[in-house]
Amino acid sequence: MGRVLSVASECVPLVKTGGLADVVGALPAALKATGWDMRVLLPAYRALRARTKGWPVVWEEPDLWGGPGKVHAGDVDGVPLLLLDAPHLYDREGGPYSGPLGEHPDNAIRFAALSWVAARIAREGLADWKPDVLHAHDWQAGLAPAYLAYHGNGGCKSVITIHNIAFQGWAPAHLLGVLRLPGHAFHPEALEYYGGISTLKAALVTSDWITTVSPTYAAEIMRPEFGMGLQGVISSRAPVVSGILNGVDTSVWDPSREDTAFDRKAISGKTAARERLCQDFGLDVPGPLAIVVSRLTDQKGIDLLPAVVPDFVLGGGGLIVLGSGDPGMEAQVRNLADRFPGRVAVRIGYDEGLSHRLFAGADAVLVPSRFEPCGLTQMYGLRYGTLPVVSMVGGLADTVIGANPATLAAGAATGVTFHPVDALAFGRALSQLLDLHRQPKLWAKLRSNAMAHPVGWETSAVAYANLYEGLTA
Questions:
Q1: Are 114 and 260 part of one and the same domain?
Q2: Same-domain check for residues 51 and 109
Q3: What is the pLDDT of residues 121-150, one digit of tens each?
Q4: Which of 64, 142, 250, 375 is deepest in the core (most CB within 10 A)?
Q5: What is the pTM of this model?
Q6: How many CB atoms lie within 10 A of CB 179?
Q7: Strands (E), 179-272
Q8: Would you give the end-to-end CA distance of the chain in angstroms?
Q9: Beta bridge partner(s), residue 366
Q10: Do 467 and 405 share a structural domain?
Q11: Which has the closest alpha carbon to 164: 136, 139, 191?
Q12: CATH code at 267?
C-alpha cells in the first residue's frame, strides 16, 4: 500500500470556503479502494483546536516563525487527519485567511509554516508512517514541494494540484530569507515572480508533477487568457502537467435521499419537488424552471443574466438564484426578480439545504462561467437530472455533452453548451433549452442521460492512484 500526505488549508467536514475543501475531504476515502493510504495535514484553526483533545501528538516543531507547533493525529468522519496546532499562527477569530479586520497580513508565513511541517514529515516520516508522495493543494501548500526540493526530499515525490490559478500566493521579495528559501533560486526560472515571490509558482517549478482539476483546464492555463501570468511556467513543464476531474460525494448528493425521493427510472419525486419549489417561491412557470447556485461574480458570468433572462422568461422560462458575492451583481439579480414577479426569485446567501431542494426541483442549472477549473455545480445538475446549461470552458467542457445534431442522433446529450462566453451565445443556449423542453420525450431522454453520467470519485481516484504509482515506480 502506498502512502500520501495531502497538504491543504481546507478540508470537509472541518473547514470550507470553496470546492477545494470538498476535494481534499473526499480523496482519502476514494483512494482507499485503490490501495493508497492518504492522510490530510491541515492547520488547527481556532474552531478546530478542540478537536485535538485526546489526540496523540505525532510531531513537534520547536520553531515555527515565532512559536512552537505540534501535530495531532486523529480521524473525523472517516478522514485521517494531522492537525498542526500552532496557536500563534492559527488561533484567531475569523476564517482560514481573514479576520474581522480583513486578510491576515502574515498569511505568507502562516502557510509557509504548514508547508514547512509538511515537507519535514514527508522527508523524515512519522514514527509509524512515512509518505511516498506529498500532494500539495493550491498556493497555501505551494512551498511544501519547494522545501523538499531545496532542503532534501528523503525519497518523497511531490505533486501540486491547481484548483484555481487566479490565487497565486504572492509575497514581497524581502521575505525570501524569512520564508527559508534560498537566495540563489531568486531568478525568473525559479522563485522570482514579477519582482516578488509566488508560492504557487514555487510549487510549479519544483514539483515532480502538476495536476489541475480537469483536462481542459490543464490545456487552458498554458494560454495567456487563462494562465493569469503563469502560462509560460506551466507550458515549460507541459510533459508533467495533467488534468484529473473532481468528483462529487454521491452519498451526500443523492436524489433518492431527498425529501421527494426519485431516480432516473422513477422521476415522480422530481415533479413533486418542482411543484413545492414553485409554491414556496411564489412562481408560476409553464416552461423550464432554471436555477443559478453560485458565487455572484464576474468569473461566474452572473453579469450576463440581465441581458438573457428577459427573453427566457418571455419564452415561458423561470429562474431562482441562490448565492452572494459582488454587491452590484446581487443588485442586478434582485432587479430581475422585481421586474418579473412570479417568474424570477432570488435568495441572497448560502444555504446548503436549499441548494439540495433547488437541484431536486429545477429543470435546468445555468453555469455561464468565463473560466471554471472544474466546477461541481454542473455535476450536481447531472446527478439530479437538472440539465446543465454551461459555457465550454474548463471542467464544464469535460463533463457536459452538449445537445447538437450529432449527440442527439447518438442519444448521448446531457445538457446544453455554448461558446463564446457572451450574452448572444448564452441567449441562444437558453432558446435551445426552451425548445428542448417543448419536446417531452426528448427532454426525458436528456434527463435520463444526465442522471446516468458518472460524477463520483471512482474514476478520478484510479487516475490519482496511477499518477502516484508512476511517480514512485
A1: no
A2: yes
A3: 999 999 999 999 999 999 999 999 999 999
A4: 375
A5: 0.93
A6: 22
A7: 192-193, 196-198, 209-212, 241-243
A8: 13
A9: 389
A10: no
A11: 139
A12: 3.40.50.2000
